[in-house]
Every structure is written in structure tokens, then in C-alpha cells.
């Protein structure tokens, strides 16, 4: 009986030790609903994809880092970007694997060697203080990155729908592209209409003052048109009168010039005759 009791106690101790070891090695899986947990406390978060060879190589190292989570007073998590496309856009993941250090809502990207000792010393020696945090416009909790996350989620749904249309439903690829092209155009038109409505609601046009509101009738409009025509006719008449006056002035100047030439011609012969008579008189007196 004593031997059996000792054996049961030994088995219980081994079971408790293994369960604690499993809990200690556990890496926290994060998704779209739980990623905001990293905004509190200190975290190390890895972004990976199952098909990535480099991600497969760092997987055992990441589990060993998780073993030190209690000693370093941090939490270790990971995000599968193949399932969480929205988080891939929110954190602007351009390479795999990508590691972020998060402390009280400040995000820093870890760019050091991907070994167990280097990662642990990065936390233990507080080397992250030498790294500039992510700027405000790239902060995962900002509005612009939230919009980018929505775009990535929509693109993922479009890809899933495209694969379903071509693989399961048997539609040709070109028809799927045409469908999504038309859907994009319609969505753009609806979005533009929505923006116009919002702009009109937020900034409505100002009505004219009450005293300046004019109610024009058809007869008033016809009178105004006639007045405009009269004004145009009066301007044309003025232009014509001005041209006629110019012509008269030019003609008057030409007639004056002709009269002066004629007078000169008439006066010239008389002066010559008087000169000849005077010369004859002088010759007679001399004789």
C-alpha cells in the first residue's frame, strides 16, 4: 500500500511538472480580436507565415524565448499573417519573420540577430531604449493604420472570393477579373456620391439674403433680352457713326489739299505775266 501511494505521488508530481512546463512554453496566439492586449505591459510579438522557411527556423527559438517570459516579466506572442491579413496591414509587415517589442503602447521593431541569447539580452539589458519607437503615423492603433487594415481585410476577402469562383464554381479567370473590375467602379461611384452628400450636409450652400431674392417672370426676362439687344444695337450704331466721321474727316482733308494745289496753279501764271510786263516797261523807259 505504501509503495502504491508513493508511486501515485510520484506520478502526480511528474504530471504537475509537465503541465507547468507546457504552460511555461506556451506562446500566446493573437488575432484581430485580441491584438490590443499588447498595448498594456511588455510584449515580444512575432509575425510569421507557416510557408516561410525563415519563420520555420525561428519557431523553436521563439519557444525557448517564451520559457524566459516569467523571468523577464514579459509576454511572448505570435501572429499568423496568412490568417490575419488585417493585422499584417495594421503593422505594415513587409518581411517575414518580423519581431516587435511593445512596452506600454510603444512599438519598436527588433532588427538584431534572431538567436535566443540576443533576444533575451535585448530585453534584459534594455537595449530597446536605444531604438527609436514607431512614429505616430505608423502606430498600429492610429486611424490611418486602421483604415489600411480594413483595406487588407477587403483584399483578402476578394482573393478568397476569386479562388472560390474559379476553383469551386468553375468560372473563367477573365470573367472573375471583369466582375471585380465592375464592382470596383460601382463602389467608387457610390463612395463619391456618399462624399458629396456628406460635404453638402457639413457645408451647405448659403442662401442669398431675403431682400435680394428676385422673382423674375417670363415677360421680365423677355424685356431684359430686348434691352440687351438694344444696347448691342446702340453700340453698333456708335461704332458705325465713328467710322463715318473718320471717313468725312479724311475726305475733307483731301479736298482741302486739292483746293490748295489748284490755287497754286492758278496764281503761278498771273505772277509770270506781271513780271514780263514790268520788264517791258523798264526796257521802254531805258530806250
UniProtKB/TrEMBL annotation:
Bilayer-spanning residue ranges: 174-198
One function term, GO molecular function aspect: disulfide oxidoreductase activity
Cellular compartments per GO CC: endoplasmic reticulum membrane
Keyword Aminoacyl-tRNA synthetase recorded: no
Position of the signal peptide: 1-21
Main location: endoplasmic reticulum
UniProt membrane topology term: Single-pass type I membrane protein
Keyword field contains Nucleotide-binding: no
Domain Thioredoxin: 3-128
InterPro entries membership: Thioredoxin-like_sf (IPR036249), Thioredoxin_CS (IPR017937), Thioredoxin_domain (IPR013766), TMX_domain-containing (IPR052454)
Disordered, as annotated region: 209-287
Pfam families named in the record: Thioredoxin
Key words, A-Z: Disulfide bond, Electron transport, Endoplasmic reticulum, Membrane, Phosphoprotein, Redox-active center, Signal, Transmembrane, Transmembrane helix, Transport
Biased composition (Basic and acidic residues): 222-287
Compartment(s) where it occurs, according to its Swiss-Prot or TrEMBL record: Endoplasmic reticulum membrane
PANTHER family according to UniProt: DUMPY: SHORTER THAN WILD-TYPE, THIOREDOXIN DOMAIN-CONTAINING PROTEIN
Name of protein: Thioredoxin-related transmembrane protein 1
Species per Swiss-Prot/TrEMBL record: Holothuria leucospilota
Amino acid at each position: 500500500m505504501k509503495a502504491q501511494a508513493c508511486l501515485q505521488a510520484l506520478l502526480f508530481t511528474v504530471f504537475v511538472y509537465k503541465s507547468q512546463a507546457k504552460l511555461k512554453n506556451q506562446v500566446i496566439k493573437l488575432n484581430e480580436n485580441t491584438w490590443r492586449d499588447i498595448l498594456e505591459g511588455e510584449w515580444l510579438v512575432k509575425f510569421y507565415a507557416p510557408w516561410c522557411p525563415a519563420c520555420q527556423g525561428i519557431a523553436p527559438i521563439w519557444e525557448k524565448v517564451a520559457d524566459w517570459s516569467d523571468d523577464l516579466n514579459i509576454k511572448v506572442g505570435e501572429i499568423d499573417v496568412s490568417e490575419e491579413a488585417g493585422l499584417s496591414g495594421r503593422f505594415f509587415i513587409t518581411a517575414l519573420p518580423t519581431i516587435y517589442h511593445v512596452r506600454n503602447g510603444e512599438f519598436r521593431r527588433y532588427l538584431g540577430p534572431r538567436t535566443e541569447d540576443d533576444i533575451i539580452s535585448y530585453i534584459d539589458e534594455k537595449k530597446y531604449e536605444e531604438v527609436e519607437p514607431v512614429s505616430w503615423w505608423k502606430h498600429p492603433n492610429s486611424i490611418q493604420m486602421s483604415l489600411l487594415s480594413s483595406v487588407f481585410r477587403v483584399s483578402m476577402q476578394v482573393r478568397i472570393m476569386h479562388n472560390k469562383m474559379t476553383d469551386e464554381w468553375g468560372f473563367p479567370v477573365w470573367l472573375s477579373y471583369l466582375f471585380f473590375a465592375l464592382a470596383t467602379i460601382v463602389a467608387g461611384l457610390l463612395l463619391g456620391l456618399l462624399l458629396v452628400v456628406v460635404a453638402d450636409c457639413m457645408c451647405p450652400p448659403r442662401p442669398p439674403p431675403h431682400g435680394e431674392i428676385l422673382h423674375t417672370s417670363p415677360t421680365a426676362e423677355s424685356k431684359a433680352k430686348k434691352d440687351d439687344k438694344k444696347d448691342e444695337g446702340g453700340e453698333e450704331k456708335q461704332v458705325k457713326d465713328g467710322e463715318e466721321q473718320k471717313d468725312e474727316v479724311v475726305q475733307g482733308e483731301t479736298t482741302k489739299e486739292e483746293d490748295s494745289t489748284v490755287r497754286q496753279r492758278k496764281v503761278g501764271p498771273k505772277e509770270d505775266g506781271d513780271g514780263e510786263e514790268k520788264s517791258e516797261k523798264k526796257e521802254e523807259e531805258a530806250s
